[in-house]
Amino acid sequence: MKKIALLGSTGSIGTQTLDIVRHHPERFTITALTAGSNTELVVAQAKEFKPSIVSMATKDLADRVSPHLPAGTRVVYGDEGLIEAASETDADTVVTAIMGSRGLPATLAAIEEGKAIGLANKETLVTAGHIVMARAQEKNVPIIPIDSEHSAIYQCLNGEPMRGVRGITLTASGGSFRDRTRGELEGVTVAEALSHPNWSMGAKITIDSATMVNKGLEVIEAHWLFDLAYDQINVLIHPESIIHSYVEFVDHSIVAQLGMPDMRVPIQYALTYPERHTTPTERLDLAAIGKLHFREMDFERYPCLRMAFDCGRLGRSAPAVYNAANEIAVDRFLRGEIAFLDIERVLETVLERHEVSEVNDLESIAEADNWARRLAASV
Ligand code: NAD
Ligand code: MG
């Protein structure tokens, strides 16, 4: 029986993780659930899965859910609550399905306790990849990717020595505006940006897919997860999202991972690795799909991806600043405060004004993160 603490249980990855748990009641149990504000859903989840801890974003929300929780479920809240949920139950695996760099301290706390990480929260590795990966290695804790591209690479690499790897290619669907020119991006609405052609995901990552920031975060995530140089990481537009990513070896052999776009496959793989079990998902029928398409990435069309490569290569505080500025810019766009193309303008301005510095601990990362948030909020 695998015991799972699930950070971000009411979101897109969170609810799909619970789907997998539901599908294999003999294999998985839930020890902790955490949620932002969806009290109704988290109460229903707690009744169904009977965790020992539920953590809510604020005390007010915690007070609201508390009377409805099953006996034996304790409620906590805030950033401390999140850390408690991640590290203080008898979970052996923590699934990080929370959005944004807020997930970082809880992920590190789980690693300290020797818990395996099922990593969806890519912002964690973007802001502090050097710290998280080093600590995981020291504690001998596996970090298994849930992001579909990284799960694909993980599956392709299974058992391969890294010296045989020439490079990897992350595929990108192109997001909601992939068939528009830059000129046609002026004045697009929040609703248009939120309708992704292939995947149903949380709001923030859907906007990140349209700006290609998501792929930028994934490039940095891949750099840390697989210890690859940025020159070894490529991005290719693949509108169908059937090939989830691939590895090219030095002998020019390519190994790719394919499947229907359904996050429950990589979520379950992270939970059962190295084993495989049935999933409640659709099988891929290549004959029915007929054709797959590929387009070279256009860095002029998607400047946010170029900025991500630049920040990745600069390293130190640059990726944390890129991520934090983006979190604020996306939030402002979703609230109707700035236009879609302003997201990249905010990023550009914040990065231009940033003086890259060493960030060797959580405090200095938080400092860079806060600096970027403040500036991004006022640009
Ligand atoms: P989402 O917005 O749907 O869900 C976020 C979850 O975090 C929700 O349960 C929310 O209640 C919870 N949360 C927010 N603030 C919280 C707080 N203060 N305390 C506790 N919980 C809090 O997001 P998502 O799309 O599921 O994405 C989650 C993460 O997974 C992101 O890092 C994203 O980049 C990554 N990811 C998502 C997908 C996808 O298909 N959705 C794919 C790959 C990677
Ligand atoms: Mg992805």
Automatic annotation (TrEMBL):
Pathway entry: Isoprenoid biosynthesis; isopentenyl diphosphate biosynthesis via DXP pathway; isopentenyl diphosphate from 1-deoxy-D-xylulose 5-phosphate: step 1/6
Positions of 1-deoxy-D-xylulose 5-phosphate binding: K122, S148, E149, S173, H196, S209, N214, K215, E218
Keyword Oxidoreductase annotated: yes
Binding site for NADPH: T10, G11, S12, I13, G36, N38, N121, E123, G202
Enzyme nomenclature, EC number: 1.1.1.267
Residue sites binding Mn(2+) per the record: D147, E149, E218
Start and end residues of each DXP reductoisomerase C-terminal domain: 258-374
MF-aspect GO terms: 1-deoxy-D-xylulose-5-phosphate reductoisomerase activity; isomerase activity; manganese ion binding; NADPH binding
Gene3D superfamilies linked: 1.10.1740.10, NAD(P)-binding Rossmann-like Domain
Stated role: Catalyzes the NADPH-dependent rearrangement and reduction of 1-deoxy-D-xylulose-5-phosphate (DXP) to 2-C-methyl-D-erythritol 4-phosphate (MEP).
NCBIfam families attached to this UniProt entry: Dxr, PRK12464.1
Family (UniProt): Belongs to the DXR family.
HAMAP family recorded: DXP_reductoisom
Protein name: 1-deoxy-D-xylulose 5-phosphate reductoisomerase
Species of origin: Paenibacillus agaridevorans
Organism placement in taxonomy: Bacteria, Bacillati, Bacillota, Bacilli, Bacillales
